[in-house]
């Protein structure tokens, strides 16, 4: 092992002991404590991160994963991923400092922000971070002036109109401008070593990866024509982090593998990277949030409950965190989080129309509406699963930074697998969420990617 993570960094649990079990113990302990303020807290299963990594290696054996630090910068996550040998994609100085502080070498860091402050470019130069992204002339000129020995990666725009988060609205050079940018880099004696793209989060069409890989091939050919020694292809992110999404990770992997074989075949000398965030951490984190205020409202309109002779009652509950904090996915991803009651109500207890709100005096701080819940009380805990992405280590959207307590866990089996960098064979089929054999992404290749997916047009 590389020594980034030790047993003291997490709670070792035996197989069969669930996150829910630990949450129940922790909330019971907090409820007994005599504190003035009770804050939301997380339980993170680092073993789930380890399993996701082995699945990634099996499905995309030619792709070297980098972790997007902005997704979740908690130390437990960074340490376990560093132990697994990942590189790190950083968006600013603070993230570069953080990963270098735990011992990650500069050679494993990409400064992947196409919109960089000059001071942070100089920081990257001072601390040996060589790979930097750019997508326009102004950004290139800043790096030429502040870090002329940097290795540049040209970020290209993608077809992401169907993605939930469309990054190409903000980042990425159009194909028709790539030749001009590469010519300018050559004139400025800047070395462009590769191409990157990002199809955005929540893309329902895996063929978007194939199209972007095909377009990257065109840019590689232009770069070679101009004398750039291009040897890096960065596939970006956008990989799903939970089960049950419209497009499974295995389907995406199949399309990527086929496209790589077509446009960047094995042995071509190109290093294939990907920048993953949600994929690794979403399902690993569960959060417990307490109810801090409650209001009952009687509604006049007819309802199904009036048939039983009772007026409709709806309850408005305020949580100690909201959409401007850990529930920001409500605003950005249009997700309606579904709570799990920490205390199981009796079967005969009636359900009421309910809504969950954050603590901010703002009409948009609504976490969830249209819920049917038993009557809850101040101090009760609600549990939300799949809360690892863009919730921890982020500043509040209203300014400032809120620190959450995180209890890290890992099963003994996952710890041994991490130490040996190999998942035991007998655990492969039983591990929850684990991809099966290496062929799992290839079994559906024929139906997803037949022959040349795209024939790139020429670029003027």
Automatic annotation (TrEMBL):
Intracellular or extracellular location(s): Cell projection, Axon; Cell projection, Dendrite; Cytoplasm, Perinuclear region; Cytoplasmic granule
Gene Ontology biological-process annotations: negative regulation of protein catabolic process; ornithine metabolic process; positive regulation of polyamine transmembrane transport; putrescine biosynthetic process from arginine, via ornithine; trans-Golgi network membrane organization
Full protein name: Antizyme inhibitor 2
Domain Orn/DAP/Arg decarboxylase 2 N-terminal positions: 47-281
GO terms assigned for molecular function: carboxy-lyase activity; ornithine decarboxylase activator activity
Keyword field: Cell projection, Cytoplasm, Cytoplasmic vesicle, Golgi apparatus, Membrane, Nucleus, Polyamine biosynthesis, Pyridoxal phosphate, Transport, Ubl conjugation
Role noted for this protein: Antizyme inhibitor (AZI) protein that positively regulates ornithine decarboxylase (ODC) activity and polyamine uptake. AZI is an enzymatically inactive ODC homolog that counteracts the negative effect of ODC antizymes (AZs) OAZ1, OAZ2 and OAZ3 on ODC activity by competing with ODC for antizyme-binding. Inhibits antizyme-dependent ODC degradation and releases ODC monomers from their inactive complex with antizymes, leading to formation of the catalytically active ODC homodimer and restoring polyamine production.
Complex and partners: Monomer. Interacts with OAZ1, OAZ2 and OAZ3; this interaction disrupts the interaction between the antizyme and ODC1. Does not form a heterodimer with ODC1.
GO CC terms of this entry: axon; cis-Golgi network; cytosol; dendrite; endoplasmic reticulum-Golgi intermediate compartment membrane; granular vesicle; mitochondrion; nucleus
Domain of life (superkingdom): Eukaryota
Family, per entry: Belongs to the Orn/Lys/Arg decarboxylase class-II family. ODC antizyme inhibitor subfamily.
């Amino acid at each position: 092992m590389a020594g980034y993570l030790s047993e003291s960094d997490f709670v070792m649990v035996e197989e069969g002991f669930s996150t829910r079990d630990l949450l129940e113990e922790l909330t019971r302990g907090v409820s007994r404590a005599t504190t003035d303020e009770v804050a939301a807290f997380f339980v993170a299963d680092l073993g789930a991160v380890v399993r996701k990594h082995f699945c990634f290696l099996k499905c995309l054996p030619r792709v070297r994963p980098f972790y997007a630090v902005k997704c979740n910068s908690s130390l437990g996550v960074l340490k376990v991923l560093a132990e697994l040998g990942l590189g790190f994609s950083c968006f600013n100085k603070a993230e570069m400092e953080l990963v270098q502080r735990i011992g990650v070498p500069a050679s494993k860091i990409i400064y992947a922000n196409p919109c960089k402050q000059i001071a942070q470019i100089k920081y990257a130069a001072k601390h040996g971070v060589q790979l930097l992204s750019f997508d326009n002339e102004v950004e290139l000129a800043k790096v030429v002036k502040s870090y002329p020995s940097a290795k540049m990666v040209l970020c290209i725009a993608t077809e992401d109109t169907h993605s939930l988060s469309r990054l190409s609205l903000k980042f990425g050079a159009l194909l028709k401008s790539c030749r001009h940018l590469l010519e300018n880099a050559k004139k400025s004696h800047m070395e462009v070593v590769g191409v990157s793209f990002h199809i955005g989060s929540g893309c329902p069409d895996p063929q978007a990866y194939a199209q972007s890989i095909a377009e990257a091939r065109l840019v590689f050919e232009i770069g070679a024509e101009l004398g750039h020694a291009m040897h890096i292809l960065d596939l970006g992110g956008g990989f799903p982090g939970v089960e049950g999404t419209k497009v499974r990770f295995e389907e995406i992997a199949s399309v990527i593998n086929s496209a790589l074989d077509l446009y960047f075949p094995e042995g071509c000398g190109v290093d294939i990277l990907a920048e993953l965030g949600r994929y690794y951490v979403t399902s690993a984190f569960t959060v417990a949030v307490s109810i801090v205020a409650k209001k009952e409202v009687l509604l006049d309109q007819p309802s199904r409950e009036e048939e039983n002779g009772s007026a409709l009652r709806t309850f408005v509950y305020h949580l100690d965190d909201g959409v401007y904090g850990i529930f920001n996915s409500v605003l950005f991803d249009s997700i309606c989080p579904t709570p799990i009651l920490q205390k199981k109500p009796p079967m005969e207890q009636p359900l009421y129309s309910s809504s969950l709100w954050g603590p901010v005096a703002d009409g948009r701080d609504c976490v969830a509406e249209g819920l049917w819940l038993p009557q809850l009380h101040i101090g009760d805990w609600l549990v939300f699963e799949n809360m690892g992405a863009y919730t921890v280590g982020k500043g509040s959207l209203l300014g400032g930074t809120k620190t959450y307590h995180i209890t890290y866990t890992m099963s003994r089996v996952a710890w041994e697998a991490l130490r040996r960098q190999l998942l035991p064979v007998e655990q492969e089929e039983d591990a929850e969420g684990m991809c099966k054999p290496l062929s799992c992404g290839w079994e559906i290749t024929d139906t997803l990617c037949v022959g040349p997916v795209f024939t790139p047009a020429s670029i003027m």
